[in-house]
Amino acid sequence: MPNYSPNTQGLKENRGVKPSLNKKEYSIKLSPEKKADLEKIAQEFGFKHGGKGSLSALLEAISDDELMLVQTPPSRRRSPGQDNNTDIDGDEYGDELLKKRKRNYLKDN
């Protein structure tokens, strides 16, 4: 069907043309839960596209040093009913904490 409206002003102004950003598409494998977690982080930092967090914008911000990542000690996994004080075994951070507690205990007794 021909266009009977001769209004071509938008075409002259390059409207409707995506700018070339010289980007390539890559793929990664993530569980749906991890993807949702990363999208939530992206959204919290204001990196949104289509109403949800944008992973590409988040990664680009990290790459451009707009976001700084800080490593924290590994998270402690607890079994149901496990006491808060029994989560220190199995890694270097926990081993150091256990040694420190033993030294303090021996010093006090």
TrEMBL record:
<feature type="region of interest" description="Disordered">
    <location>
        <begin position="70"/>
        <end position="109"/>
    </location>
</feature>
<protein>
    <submittedName>
        <fullName>Uncharacterized protein</fullName>
    </submittedName>
</protein>
<feature type="compositionally biased region" description="Basic residues">
    <location>
        <begin position="99"/>
        <end position="109"/>
    </location>
</feature>
<feature type="compositionally biased region" description="Polar residues">
    <location>
        <begin position="1"/>
        <end position="11"/>
    </location>
</feature>
<feature type="compositionally biased region" description="Acidic residues">
    <location>
        <begin position="86"/>
        <end position="95"/>
    </location>
</feature>
<feature type="compositionally biased region" description="Basic and acidic residues">
    <location>
        <begin position="12"/>
        <end position="28"/>
    </location>
</feature>
<feature type="region of interest" description="Disordered">
    <location>
        <begin position="1"/>
        <end position="28"/>
    </location>
</feature>
